[in-house]
Amino acid sequence: MKLSRGLSTAFAVVQLLDRALAAATSGTFSILSMNVAGLPAILNSNDVPGDKTTNAATIGSQFAEYNYDVIHVQEDFNYHAHIYRTDTHPHRTPTSGGVPFGSGLNTLSTLPFLDFRRTKWARCSDASEFDCLTPKGFTFMRVALSLPPNVSVSISDNTTAVYADFYNLHTDAGTEAGDLTARNDNVNQVAAHIAQWSRGNAVVVYGDVNSRYTRAGDTAIRGLLAGEDDAAGPGLKDVWVELARGGVLPTAEDACGNPARDSQCETVDKVFYRSSPLVRLQAEQFRYDTARFLQADGNVLSDHNPVFVQFAWEAGPGLRQSGFFGGVAGTWFSDVPVLAGLSKPKAGVLTFRGGSRLDSVAVTLTEGTRLRHGGTGGTEVSLSLGADEYWTEAQLCRGEKNGKPRNFYIRAATSSGRTLAAGTATADCATFTAPDGWQIVGFVGQDGDEMDQLAFVYAPR
């Protein structure tokens, strides 16, 4: 059948609109790590010519011009306002203050993020630097690579979302014995946080690590790597090792100058990452971007080479997730590692507990695995699904308890039109629909005695 020109044009517009409204399942994003040399000039000139206020404003304008997707900065202390004044990224972390109050860690992003938090190092050393002068540490945020669109129309995959956990860090500096001990402890502290709070998730870690692979005392960074010294570690890849060195760790020191002569030399500013069953990450480009960050006279703006990486991402072929709903209190949980080890998981029994609020959620899969989260309060309700019946839709409603948001209500709907509900509905609700050909099989989120935050895990039928 041949459509008329007008009808054909209208049909094409509808197709384009549908694609525009659908949450993306693949794409690219760029990152930059830059120590911006923001210590007060009276404390540290950083051996950088020029006025630090002017340099900070220039750095911010370059951030805006090149529009990297997620920029992590370190030593963003007393000149922070001048960077933000000239930058235009829509999502930015609030400063924690100048010296001696702030950590110097901030993020500027084109992508939205949630659950931002700052963590101070448990150990520091003043053996050769003044690392205990400020509350140095790391930051955490869950960055949305793709989100469901905020629209009123219904399309097949309007509630899929893709996230990766981003960490920004600035470890203890120096090479004295105390510095090395503190720095290794810093890196191990990040690894422990990844194990607890990024279970089941893709991870991108970058910043001023103050470490070199050729320095005998810098042992902890090898424990971050997949297949290296720590088999129980987070299993990350170092982008510089992967792309610039063909996967081979250096054995002879080749420290970069400033600007770096090429991508083969090593800096203490590093980028690590890993994929998850929910999203595949692949580093595609790596370079030191100092040439983009120069003063008008050609001098550098910082004593560190900015590190650029371009990533490609693709939503998982076997597991995907919805957007999050609720609050950000509670303890992180993820059913993804368990589900990733199963062949064709399917919900067999849904079990919820609720009263004034939503206390717990559970799903028993047809092969017997039971996935449960939350507390033991409220009244229990249950629904057994038929052999050809799938959990396809969920509604969540949230409210506040003690001034903090959490989930108050859940309503599940199956492919057969049956429903199960628990808790107390509110006026603030969202509906999550599995993509065509997919089903809800598990959960990710944060819980305690009740369900603070919740998202749903999808698998193909």
UniProtKB/TrEMBL annotation:
UniProt keyword Membrane, yes or no: no
GO molecular function: phosphatase activity; sphingomyelin phosphodiesterase activity
A single Gene Ontology CC term: cytoplasm
Nucleus found in the keyword field: no
GO biological process terms on file: phosphatidylinositol dephosphorylation
Residues covered by the Jacalin-type lectin domain: 330-460
Annotated signal sequence range: 1-22
InterPro entries xrefs: Endo/exonu/phosph_ase_sf, IPPc, Jacalin-like_lectin_dom, Jacalin-like_lectin_dom_sf, Sph/SMPD2-like
Pfam families on file: Exo_endo_phos2, Jacalin
Keywords: Signal
Protein name in UniProt: Jacalin-type lectin domain-containing protein
Species this chain originates from: Staphylotrichum longicolle
